[in-house]
Amino acid sequence: MQSGVRQRLVGAFVLICVAAILWPVLFSKSVNPVLDRRSQIPAIPAFEKYEIKKPVKPVNVSEVMRYQPEAADDSLEPEPAKAESKSSPEPQPAANTVNNLPQKPAFSEQGLPVYWTLQLASFSQQEKADKLKQALLAKGYKVDMQTVKTSKGDRVRVYVGPKLDKSVLEKIKPAIDKEFKVKSLLVQFSPR
Q1: Could you give the CA distance from residue 189 to residue 115 in angstroms, rounded to a whole number?
Q2: Nearest to 121 by CA among 144, 137, 139
Q3: Is the distance from CB of 17 to CB of 9 less than 8 angstroms?
Q4: pLDDT of 188 higher than 50
Q5: CA distances from 111 to 37, 69, 104 (A)
Q6: Measuring CA to CA, which residue among 156, 99, 98 is closest to residue 132?
Q7: How far apart (Å, rounded) are the C-alpha atoms in residues 122 and 105?
Q8: DSSP string covering 53-113, please?
Q9: What phi, psi does 26 have (nearest 5°)?
Q10: What is the dihedral of CA 74, 103, 169, 78, to 10 degrees?
Q11: CA 43, CA 76: separation in Å to the nearest integer?
Q12: Tell me: the pLDDT tens digits for 3-49?
């Protein structure tokens, strides 16, 4: 008998809950709320049209100086140890100063500057290439290595450079050849 009473109480509770939920829906006066359909976006602002005047050069401004390339210290040679000698005469100015100026860089078909580099050696063993690289770095040179595939197998090429000014590499080529006992080649630099 207790389960019958329990079922009746649960049923009555469910009916009261359903009535509480449905009562406002069934017996409310405004079924559909009134929505304000007016726009909240402000009106388009009025813009004034104006003309852009052509620039006029001021009278009190001086002429702009044009760029003049400066001779940069872009050599690859390490600084030699300076031996002080008090009796040495002052160096004479070079007769041909045109050769001392840096060359204008050449440009490729794509309009990019052409860089130059010295290929010092091509090794079949990585250890030998690393040894030469360390010796060059110790002397203050900028060194690059590339591995290339040849008909004789993989080779590791050791380069000094790259530089925009070809004449810089031409000047240091004899000193490097003599010091490291190589016959270097001046080649156009190609990035990997």
Answers
A1: 5
A2: 144
A3: no
A4: yes
A5: 62, 20, 14
A6: 156
A7: 27
A8: PPP---TTPPPPPPP---------PPPPPPPP-TTPPPPPPPS-TTTTSPPPPPB-TTSPB
A9: -80, -35
A10: -20
A11: 69
A12: 889 999 999 999 999 999 988 877 777 656 677 888 888 888 888 88
Residue-wise pLDDT for 67-119, tens only, equals 666 555 555 555 554 444 444 444 444 444 445 555 666 777 777 777 888 88
Rounded Cα–Cα distance for residues 124 and 149 (Å): 10
Whole-prediction pTM value?
0.45
Spatial separation of the C-alpha atoms in residues 18 and 10, rounded to whole Å: 12
Beta carbons within 8 Å of 77's beta carbon, 6+ residues apart: 140, 171, 172, 175
pLDDT at 1 exceeding the cut of 80 = no
Rounded Cα distance between 7 and 190, Å, is: 91
Q: What is the C-alpha separation between 68 and 84, in angstroms, rounded? A: 35
> What is the identity of the amino acid at 54?
K
Order across the sheet with 153-163: list the strands.
Answer: 143-150, 153-163, 116-123, 185-188
Q: Give the integer Cα–Cα distance in Å for 151 and 149.
A: 7
Residue 184 tokens read as 């270097």
Rounded Cα gap, residues 188 and 66, in angstroms: 31
